[in-house]
Amino acid sequence: MQTRLLKIDRCNQKTADLSAACELLRKGELVAFPTETVYGLGGNACDASASARIYAAKGRPSDNPLIVHIAHKEDLSVVGRDVSEGAKKLADAFWPGPLTIIVNRADIIPKETTGGLDSVAVRMPSDIIANRLIDESGLFIAAPSANASGRPSTTRAEHCMEDLDGRIPMVIDGGPVKIGLESTIVDMSGDKPLILRPGFITKEELEKVIPGIEFDPAVIARVKNENIIAKAPGMKYRHYAPKGELTIYEGDAELVIKTINEKTAELKALGKKTAVLATEESKDLYTADYVASLGRRTDEAEIAVHLFEQLRNFDEIGADCIFAESFPQGGIGSAIMNRLMKAAGYRIITLN
Ligand code: AMP
Ligand code: MG
């Protein structure tokens, strides 16, 4: 299959012709498109065979449910059933935006879209192209991140092409995304509101609307603990991992740099290609073959927007061993560390 790349200029986002993309979606085909979080791989959420195509194109296990994207807040009660007051409050406070809300599934959404679950994850994106695509297609769009399963999520159209070229008919290129981490996921379908995935909307912000909201234990578990069952099925799968072995170092900043330099020297002597995931403040202090900077440590949003791209770059350069600095928990830092820990297969070393 030939994959068409539909390029949209920044200044043309409100008026660009999306009719070909809408037509494909209405026929049950798939289109990758930009959102403010990461690129999504979209298909008609009400069409079980479109969902099956999404799983096949990504190579994603079919028990890992898809997020249903809507263009209007009111549609939360169309794709969801018995939507609680709390869920509505969250939608009012954060939509359109990078928050996914899990509610009971309405029959209009087939089980194939929700990985067999009786709940459904719903989001109303703020990105203009995403919003127009949903609205103008007249559909609800099921869209996981537009990467091959297991690889880092895609923050540019080029990444979607890397993973999906020849597997889907169209990628809409809307340029680099604004946030770079997937949405925060909140489960409002049970008795207790729970954060299943940290994201750009922080626990601190959510608490102002839903006092007492907690992280699901599986989110904060440092090591994989067999006793904690992941509520978001996606949390149990290996994610974002570069091909090289990634290890996170935390502790005193100087000691981290010294230790990583010692390790890379040993590995270089063995003929290994070494890389470091650093920041603007530290990047010149490392001696690895390749040093990537995520941005300034003081700017969490900048770190977040570069994370997946840099994880992909390690594969480009063929790094065998990668060492990453760690970031403080809290705020967006919780989301950054959540993705980094998964990418590292929870390999983290504390120095003190
Ligand atoms: P992705 O869009 O690729 O980031 O994947 C969507 C994420 O949302 C996955 O981690 C899913 O496990 C999670 N998710 C989607 N629907 C549900 C649901 N009904 N209950 C729990 N988690 C969900
Ligand atoms: Mg994903």
Brief synopsis:
The chain is an alpha/beta fold.
Provide structural commentary:
The longest helix is centred in the last third of the chain and has 18 residues, at 300-317. The chain is globular, with a radius of gyration of 20 Å. It is α/β, with parallel strands linked by helices and 352 residues long. The strands form two sheets. Strands 1, 2, 3, 4, 5, 6, 7, 8, 9, 10, 11 and 12 form a twelve-stranded mixed β-sheet that branches. Strand 2 (31-33) and strand 3 (40-44) form a beta hairpin. Helix 1 packs across helix 5 (128-137). The protein is 31% helix and 20% strand. It has helices at 19-26, 48-58, 76-79, 85-94, 128-137, 157-164, 203-209, 217-220, 253-269, 300-317, 332-343, and strands at residues 4-7, 31-33, 40-44, 67-69, 80-81, 99-105, 119-123, 141-142, 170-173, 184-187, 194-197, 214-215, 245-251, 274-278, 290-293, 321-325, 348-351. The model has no long low-confidence stretch (mean pLDDT 94). The protein folds into two domains: 4-220, DHBP synthase (Alpha-Beta Complex), CATH 3.90.870.10; 245-351, 3-Layer(aba) Sandwich (Rossmann fold). Magnesium ion (MG) binds next to loops. Adenosine monophosphate is lined by residues 64-65, 67, 102, 114, 117, 119-121, 144-145, 182, 185, 196, 231-235.
